[in-house]
Each structure stands twice: as structure tokens, then as C-alpha cells.
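Progress against Task 2.4 (sequence-to-structure conversion) is shown through the following example record, which the project officer requested during the mid-term review.
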Amino acid sequence: MIKSEFRYADGKLKGILVTGHANYKKHGEDIVCAAVSASLIVTANAIEHLALNHSIDLTVSDGYFQMNLLQEDKTVEGLFKNLEYTLNELQQQYPKHMKNQKEE
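C-alpha cells generated for the chain above:
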């Protein structure tokens, strides 16, 4: 199961942690893992291409993605919220393979 934690402070999304594997299908055929991975990569790439890397701390490895906001930036905050929305939509479609939670 993929688990996502949306970490809030002072009412603002400050970090996202995504761990695990969906186990929807075998490796290489898992559309849930592929959708989550693509969403994470698109978000990280958008931040990089907008030259906003200084605003985040990013750690990525197999089955692990953590991105934290280091300084306020409206564009990065918007990308974080879009990622949260996307992962919540995927959880609605695949509730047996994803669990998202909000932490304050």
C-alpha cells in the first residue's frame, strides 16, 4: 500500500511524505504506482524547471519520496497543493492500494 502524509503547519502544507508500493499488479505493470510516481516526478521537475529548488528539500529513493518546504513560495505551495489534490483523487479511485492522511 502507498501511504501519503500531508504535513501542515499554521494551516499551510509544508511537507509531503509518500512511502510504499501499491501492489495493484506485478512490478512493471502497476498502474497505481506509475500514476503516483508520475505525479511526484512532475511536481519535483516543475519546481526544478522553475528554478525554485532553493525552496524545498527533496529526498527520493525506491518506495520513498519526501519533499519539504524550506521557505515560503506561492508557486511551490501551489504545486504542493496540486500534488495533494492529485494523490487524493488517486486514493478515491484505488482505496485498497493507497492511504492518504493529513497531519497538523
